Amino acid sequence: MRMAALPLRTVDVAPGPPGLADVNAALTARLDGDGPPFALIPQPSRHLTADYVRVVTDAVRPDEPVDDPDAALVVATSGSTGEPRGVVITRHNLQAAVTASWERIEGLRECAWVIALPVTSIGGFGALVRAYIAGTRLHALGSIGGAAPFDPVDLVALSVDEPFAISLVPTQVADILSSPDATDWLARATAVIVGAAAMPDDLAARARDAGVRLVTTYGMTETTGGCVYDGTPLPDVDVDIVDGLIEVSGPLVAAGYRQGDGGFTGSGASRRFRTADRGEWRDGRLHILGRSDDVVTVKGVNVALGAIEAVVRTELGVREVAVVAVSDERRGHRLMAYVVMSDPVGLPAIAPLVVERLGGAARPEVIDIDALPLLPNGKIDRRALAERALRD
Question: Which residues of the chain does CATH 3.30.300.30 include?
């Protein structure tokens, strides 16, 4: 017998800490009572446009019911390379993700949590859920949800219960390491869980050398956040490489998309999700090689944009980099490397270095910019960069 579909409760999340109250109320009602599943929709702010809110609303479809009786919430993917998609995450997904992280990281269960990411993305929401299920305190930065720019100094000003943990994205870690006081504050954390984007090796090394207990993660909204910690899958999570692409199965895999199955197959704890990420196993650890759609053809040669970024990061003075490809009738594609430099003296050496490591087809046009465009969850907005590349 088919069960009746469940109506969604719409939670409009205001920018800043005030927006957490409504999210907590919806979460409490769903996990501890008979409250309905809910959809998270950010509200416009100085850093969130009305157009972005509209796109997220279209993705989560708050006016349509959900079919899964265990559904807890619908949250949008980042849309860093395409339109966001609404993902249905279940109560079991949330509990399994929290329990698995407790098993992997000693002392995490007792930690208060600092929210530094928007709770309308899985990274920020995951921290909120961890504190709720553990019954520990929650501390929030005033900048969350696009209320203000992220400032490492704000962390130092927080009065935080100890032990504590925090979830960040790599750009935030880089900003924190530029402040000695913020770095000392971060080194007090039991765990600093970093996700949403690839963590550059040199940045991770700098953080660990400063005493930061860094945990680099791989995962996505479709896997209820990070499902691989420091290259090793969490308990009950299976990761396979099939035809070069990463597939994840287990209790952390979400129920599916609002707009169809996509890469989801199976059901319950056997659900499987086929990602668009290329990966390989090295010495028993998962290594991410980039997305399947980041390989482009230049003069008949396949070039991986992620490989170019990895080379550019090794040049002294490069703080951040993103490479995008623009269609070109003669070459196939033109490669544009946007870099944020701490010292511009190394700028002329970047293109020759890429040629030396990867060959002439990989030579990018290098453009120095003040900052990379970011999405609200801290990921690089590659669609915005691609639009800029067309203009450039």
Answer: 299-391
Q: Collapsing DSSP states into helix, strand and coil, what is residue 12?
A: strand
Give CATH 3.40.50.12780 domain extents, the chain: 9-288
Q: 9-288 in CATH: which number?
A: 3.40.50.12780
Q: Provide the 10 A C-beta neighbour count for residue 160.
A: 16
* Placement of tokens 């003669």 in the chain: 330
Distances (CA, A) of 48 to 166, 226, 277: 23, 25, 28
Fold category of 299-391 in CATH: GMP Synthetase; Chain A, domain 3 (3.30.300)
Cβ burial 167-181 (10 Å sphere, 16+ → b, else e): bbbbbbbbbbbebee
Average pLDDT score, the chain: 87
Helix and strand numbers, DSSP H then E, in the chain: 11, 22
Per-residue model confidence (pLDDT) at position 80: 57
Q: Residue 376 — very low, low, confident or very high, per pLDDT cuts 50/70/90? A: low
Selection from 262, 283, 174, 281 nearest residue 220 by Cα? 262
> Can you read off the two tokens belonging to residue 237?
């999570």
Terminal Cα distance for the chain, rounded: 58
pLDDT tens profile 323-334: 888 887 677 788
Question: CA 355, CA 368: separation in Å to the nearest integer?
Answer: 18
Summarize pLDDT for 282-340 with one digit per residue, the tens. Answer: 999 999 887 777 777 887 777 888 888 888 887 777 888 888 888 876 777 888 899 98
For residues 318 and 312, the answer to whether their CB atoms sit within 8 Å is yes
Q: Are 124 and 377 in contact (CB under 8 A)?
A: yes
* Mean pLDDT of the 121-131 span: 92
Question: Residue 391: what pLDDT?
Answer: 82
Write down the pLDDT at residue 218.
93
pTM for this predicted structure: 0.81
Mention every residue, 6+ apart, whose C-beta is less than 8 A from residue 245: 274, 275, 276, 277, 278, 279, 292
Residue type, 99: T
CA dihedral 274, 275, 280, 283 (to 10 degrees): -80
Q: Tokens 């909204």 label which residue?
A: 221
CA distances from 155 to 114, 120, 176, 206 (A): 9, 21, 9, 19
> What are 6's two structure tokens?
């469940």
